[in-house]
Here is the input.
Amino acid sequence: MSEQNQAPAPQDENQLIAERREKLRALREAQAEGKGVAFPNNFKPAHQATALQDAYGASAAEALEATPVTASVAGRMMLKRVMGKASFATVQDATGRIQLYITRDALGEDLYAAFKHWDLGDIVGAEGTLMKTKT
Here is the structure.
């Protein structure tokens, strides 16, 4: 059996629980200081991942740049790659997965810093313009 399929050791699990509790405390503290809502519930996605892929998957990158398409999706964050000023995250909704491209310039310093602390498995919502990467 591979190590990926094994349950985490109790010490690792306790550390994970402690980290999550600390993040929860920080969220609640920020809310008490008037810095946003700890668990906002007002985001309403207008699109689903598979529907966007079906509608625009065959479109060339140049076509998406020429005619911008705004989309909003929500789901569980399954993958996350932070690379300095830009990051990628994969969100899974009820229909499938879609990749998000997140930049500090687009979000601003504070929101991008907050994104860096989000965990895999968190429920997130995103709105932006559809694009295709080169690879």
User: Anything to note?
Assistant: The chain has a mean pLDDT of 89. The chain is about 35% helix and 25% strand. Strands lie at 70-83, 86-92, 97-103, 123-129.
